[in-house]
UniProtKB/TrEMBL annotation:
Species the sequence originates in: Roseibium salinum
Record protein name field: NAD(P)H-dependent oxidoreductase
Highest taxon, organism lineage: Bacteria
Location of the Flavodoxin-like fold domain: 3-181
Positions of transmembrane segments: none
Length: 193
């Protein structure tokens, strides 16, 4: 049994991202994993880091503290989000800006170019919806959002990437196409961690 945290990183309610996260969660839960789900749309916090240094950062709002507690609790962290303007929605990026702080998620070590990864021992998986076809995202855009999310956010803090899954194109997809996408998310949940 694995402790799994799913963050529905879409800033709106009742989205296809939420449906994908739910499909993943139900399959993981049905296969004996312990699952918690957080919805970005229901979180109240200021996403603006708002300063130039890490010293004296503002206290976390209750929703950020609850999310952090779940990240510490989990063994596998799943982020589901839409691809907007080639990257993460601003509010989701704001979550990472606010909670992935030195001394908590990573620690700078004197004389070393890269920090100690304080969230090591956990894995992470990303499910992304997009209107851009997956091949175009990879070959034309160079998978910039994937590099940022996997390398510069998750792995930087020690969350070992286990998969980056595109669900695309969503725009123009049929009901049958979406059912296949939901089934795929369920399959990912069944084999989670």
């Amino acid at each position: 049994m694995t402790r799994i945290l799913i963050l529905d990183g879409h800033p709106a309610k009742d989205t296809f991202c939420q449906a994908l996260g739910d499909a993943y969660a139900h399959s993981a839960w049905n296969n004996g994993h312990e699952v918690r789900v957080r919805h970005l749309s229901g979180m109240a916090f200021n996403p603006d880091f708002g300063q130039s240094t890490f010293s004296g950062t503002r206290p976390w709002e209750p929703d950020l503290q609850a999310l952090w507690d779940d990240i510490v609790w989990c063994e596998h962290f799943v982020v589901v989000h839409p691809l907007w303007w080639g990257g993460l929605p601003a509010k989701l990026k704001g979550v990472f800006d606010r909670i992935l702080l030195p001394g908590m998620a990573f620690r700078y070590v004197s004389g070393k170019p890269l920090p100690e990864k304080l969230l090591a021992g956990r894995t992470a998986e990303v499910l992304v919806t997009s209107d851009t076809p997956g091949w175009y995202f990879r070959w034309i855009y160079g998978s910039g959002a994937r590099k940022q999310t996997e390398k510069q956010i998750l792995d930087f803090c020690g969350l070992k990437p286990r998969g980056y899954h595109m669900f695309a194109p969503v725009r123009g997809s049929s009901g049958s196409d979406r059912e296949k996408m939901l089934s795929r998310a369920g399959q990912l949940g069944r084999r989670a961690a």
